Amino acid sequence: MAVQYCICQIAYKYMRYRPEDAQLVCFMLLANDRVRDMYALLYDDAFVGFYLTLAFYFFIFGRVYVAAVFLSLALSVKAGVLVALPALLGTIQWLHGSLPLAGTLGIVVGG
């Protein structure tokens, strides 16, 4: 349920001028029982999805270093998270500058 909550918060932040679309996303997540069955069969992929969702959640709300910690946690579970790394680092560079990017790289590499 925590992943769905974070995704709903991301939807409301992203669709702030159209809350009815965000409500539809939240309703689809909560009403679909296939999603709950899918999480039961994912094993460690559920943890990766949870950590990545939290990383993007904190990134959207401006907490870049906390997002880097959760990205590092997702990398520690599965190496497939490297696919999302260039997009996240490029967006950090674009929105926040070079200093938070260097700090994020330090957290991800050092973690």
Instruction: Write down the overall geometry.
Output: flat
* Poorly predicted segments: none
Q: Roughly how many Å apart are the termini?
A: 27 Å
Number of helices: 7
Structural class: mainly alpha
Number of strands: 0
* Oligomer description: single chain
Can you tell me about this structure?
- With 111 residues, the protein is an all-alpha fold.
- It is 80% helix and 0% strand.
- It contains 7 helices and no strands.
- The protein has helices at 2-14, 19-31, 33-40, 45-60, 64-77, 85-96, 98-110.
- The chain is flat, with a radius of gyration of 15 Å.
- The model has no long low-confidence stretch (mean pLDDT 85).
Set down the secondary structure blueprint.
Layout: H1 2-14, H2 19-31, H3 33-40, H4 45-60, H5 64-77, H6 85-96, H7 98-110
Feature tags:
single chain, 111 residues, flat, mainly alpha, 0% strand, 80% helix
Could you give a short description of this structure?
This protein is mainly α.
